[in-house]
Design a protein that fits this description.
Two copies of one chain form a homodimer.
Chain A: H1 16-29, H2 42-49, H3 53-66, E1 69-72, E2 76-79, E3 87-91, H4 94-100, E4 109-116, H5 119-125, E5 132-142, E6 145-155, H6 164-167, H7 172-175, E7 184-195, H8 198-203, E8 211-221, E9 225-235, E10 241-242
Antiparallel strand pairs in A: 1-2, 4-5, 5-6, 6-9, 7-8, 8-9
Chain A binds a DNA duplex (19 and 19 nucleotides) through helix 3.
Chain lengths: ~250, ~250
DNA sequence: AAGTGGTCTAGACCACCCT
DNA sequence: GGGTGGTCTAGACCACTTT
C-alpha cells in the first residue's frame, strides 16, 4: 500500500524576500498599489517588515525584473503599470520541448547534400561564394504529425565530415557536440509570418496558402564564427504562444 | 561652436559585479567556458577576484538570469549551452512604440457601438450573455500607413460612459485612466498566425490571404475583473521580431 | 543639506548533495 | 562529514536628485 504525500502549505516557510515580493505583488493585484505610486524608502520598508536592507532589495529586485517596479536613483521606487498591448513570448526549442513531453522528435532527412554556396547564404554565413557548405532539409514531427519544416546551411568542415545518420537527429547543438571549436554560443532568431508554399504544404501534410510562423536562424560559435544559417516553418494551425507571466 | 562630448571608456569604472559578469561572459564567448563546465565555488571566485561573496553572487545572478549559468544547491554552478532553436521574442506595445519613435498613433474608429454581448465574448469577459458591452474596431496607423487592425469588447460602465472621442485614442490603459476600479493590472496575450480576410485586407490596404500575426488579448483589472477582450491583427509584411539578447 | 537608491564588506547559519 | 549554494544581518560609503 502506498500513501500519497499530502502537499504541505509552504507559504509561510518560504524565504522572507519571496514573502515580501508576494505581499507587494498582491497589493498591486488588489488595486492598493497603483501605477505611479511611490513606494516608501527602502529603510522604511526594512523597519515595517523587520528585515535588513539587502533582503528588502532582493524582494524589490524580483518585482523590478517583472516590470512591476521601476527604481530611480535619488528619487525613489515607483509602481509601473503593465504593458497591456505588448508582451514577451517564448518560442521553445522544438527538440527540447518534444523531449520533455516524452515524444522524441522524428526528423527524417528530405535533403542533405554538399553544395557550392550561393550569394545569400554565403553572406549570412560570412564566407565566400562558391565555398562548399552542407545543405539540409528536414521535417520535424511530434505527436505523430509533421509540425516544422527545417532548412539549413551548415559550414563544411573537411576535417570531420558529417554523416547522414547524424544529420537526421537532434539540434545544431547535438550535431556539433563533438566539434569543440564549433559549439554554439549564441543564436540570433528573427520571427516572421508566411504562407505555405505548395512544397512546404506537401511535406507538412497541410494546404498551400495556410499561414505559418517562420523563424530565421543564425548560429554563432566561439570567436564570432558563424556555423549555420537557415529557417524553420511552424504550422500555424498547430502552434500558438501565450505571453510570458513570471511567477512570484 | 559646439563640442561633441567624447565618449569616455567606462569599462573600468563600472561596478565590480558587472565587470565580473562581463569577464565570465567573454570567457564563454571565447570558448574558454564550455557548456557542462562547473564554475569554481563561490568562495574561491571571491578570493580570485578579491570580492565579497555578495558581490560575486550579484554577478552570477545576472548570468543565471541570462540563461548562461545554472545553480544547483549542494552541487555547484554550471555553464549551460544556449538554446539555439528557440528564443524569447518581445512584441512591443504598438502605441508606446510609435510614441517613442515620435510618430503618434492615428487610430480612427471604424466601429464603436453598444452591443448585447454574445456567447464567446461573454464567456471571455466572464459576464452573462445579453449584457451590454462596447464593441470597438480601429485601424492603428504609424508612419503613414495602416499597420494593425484592433478589435475589442470592453466592459460597459453605466456610471461613466465612454465618449467616442476617447475611444479613438490610445491604449486600454489610457482609456481607463479615469476609472480607478478598472485600471489594468495584467494582460494575457496569445500569439497566433492568420491570413487576412477581405475586410481586414481592405482596412489595412493589403491583399486578402496575406499572412499576419494575430494577438488575442484579455485585460484584467484589480480583483480579478476582466475589462476587455479582443484581438489585434498585425500586417505580416510590416512586422518581424528579433529574439531578445540581454546585454551584460 | 537631506533623502534616495547603488554598491560593497565580513561574517553567520541553513539546506542540500555527495561520499 | 565536508562542500556547495541559499538566506540573512548590520553597517558603510557613494552617486544622484531634490530642496
Amino acid at each position: 500500500m502506498e500513501f500519497v504525500e499530502e502537499p504541505v502549505e509552504r507559504m509561510d516557510e518560504s524565504p522572507a524576500y519571496q514573502k515580501l515580493a508576494r505581499t507587494l505583488h498582491n497589493q498591486f493585484m488588489e488595486g492598493k498599489l497603483r501605477p505611479g505610486d511611490r513606494l516608501p524608502p527602502e529603510l522604511e520598508i526594512c523597519e515595517t517588515f523587520g528585515l535588513s536592507r539587502i533582503t528588502v532589495r532582493q524582494a524589490l529586485a524580483i518585482l523590478v525584473e517583472q516590470g512591476l517596479l521601476r527604481r530611480e536613483q535619488g528619487r525613489g521606487t515607483f509602481v509601473v503599470g503593465p504593458r497591456v498591448d505588448g508582451g514577451v513570448f517564448v518560442i521553445p526549442d522544438f527538440y527540447e520541448e518534444m523531449r520533455l513531453r516524452g515524444r522524441p522528435t522524428i526528423a527524417p532527412l528530405i535533403t542533405a547534400k554538399l553544395v557550392m554556396i550561393t550569394s545569400i547564404p554565403a553572406e549570412k554565413l560570412g564566407i565566400v561564394q562558391g565555398e562548399p557548405a552542407i545543405y539540409l532539409e528536414r521535417v520535424l514531427s511530434g505527436e505523430d504529425e509533421p509540425l516544422v519544416f527545417d532548412r539549413k546551411y551548415i559550414l563544411y568542415n573537411p576535417a570531420r565530415p558529417l554523416l547522414e545518420a547524424e544529420l537526421g537527429e537532434g539540434s545544431i547543438t547535438d550535431l556539433f557536440r563533438e566539434f569543440p571549436d564549433w559549439l554554439p554560443v549564441k543564436s540570433d532568431l528573427y520571427l516572421t509570418v508566411t504562407t505555405l508554399s505548395s512544397r512546404e504544404a506537401e511535406l507538412l501534410q497541410s494546404t498551400p496558402g495556410k499561414p505559418a510562423f517562420c523563424i530565421e536562424q543564425l548560429v554563432w560559435a566561439a570567436n564570432d564564427l558563424r556555423v549555420a544559417w537557415g529557417w524553420m516553418v511552424y504550422r500555424g494551425d498547430r502552434f500558438g504562444f501565450p505571453s510570458m507571466t513570471r511567477p512570484i
